[in-house]
Amino acid sequence: MESKLGYKIDNSNYPNDTTKRFYSSLRLVPESIYERTVEEIDAYTSNIPRAHSGGMAAVPAIGDVATIAHGDDIIRLTHRSHIVYGFAADIKYSFGVNLPFLLTKDEAVKILSVARLRRSSVPSISPVSLFFNKLPRELRDRVYQFVLPRTHWSMDEEVGRVTDLDLLGALGDLSGFYFPFGAESGILTVNQQMREEALPLAYRTTSFELEDIDELIKLLLAIGQIGRENIVSLAFGWQSNSENDFTWDEAPGKIRREDMDRFKGSFQGTEVEQPFLTLPVIHVETCLQLLKQCRRLTNLRLNFEREPIDIIDPDAFKANVGIRGLSSLRGFKKVDIQSFDHECLDHEEGVVRWLKEQLESPVP
Predict the structure, then answer these.
(1) Ramachandran region of residue 331, left (φ > 0), alpha (ψ -120 to 50) or beta?
(2) Lower CB density within 10 Å: C or N end of the chain?
């Protein structure tokens, strides 16, 4: 390992940090030096983090900090050491979300490269705008409504359109101004004024579908304040793939009843085959805080694994910290709850019906 990485593996490579950090995949950084070294080997040999090694932006020297700000939202990017994951990114949003990441140099370069773009990189004027700008704003809005189609944004090949969600680029653009819509939203690329005026409507006419809360968090970070304030329709799975991977690595095989507290589940049986049968824990608070910023969100579809609903005691399900927080979100016009196999669950009595009624109840 040391010969491949080019440096000695010991505690001195890892600055004293009491903060629990995440990789850009939202996977929790392990405490074990050996496991962290394995992650560094994977990152070093992977083509993905090396794709930006040519970098447009210079990174701070070891010990220095680069700052990115948008209003009261701020990112502090610290170059901590010479190892592969040598950068710490601390993201703090004014509404309470704090995300501490551990990044490679290539990932840091990508964040800084996007941050150094200016809105002037979007054309400020075009021939069509000379006439269009003379129209009253009300008429321009009518044009935007006509030319922006209702679209579906998803990362699932089975759904149809597949879109790459670039979290690193998003962290360099806290406003969400550069979020990439598809070619059918071409009016957003005409010039800066049209993009500024039409972008909120583009979010309102797009339904977003994500596999789990990890993807949801990445999306709600990527679309920035503009997107969060205008998104209307959202579907996602109440599970965390990064958490499933982490808990499986930590406790492979069957989980005994006495181990359940560790995974925040309450089961009626004596053991289960896989930890993903428990409800998500690690990223739930961040997920809920971001959802609370989506004040126009009215249409919601939740996907659940069938097993936790069938296995977890109803009172324990309702008392789960994530479910309790989720059920506190109110005022949705339409809520659908189904399994990942597209089986409708909210017509049944029990916790699913209860959750749907809570979400659709009026805001207090």
Answers:
(1) left
(2) C
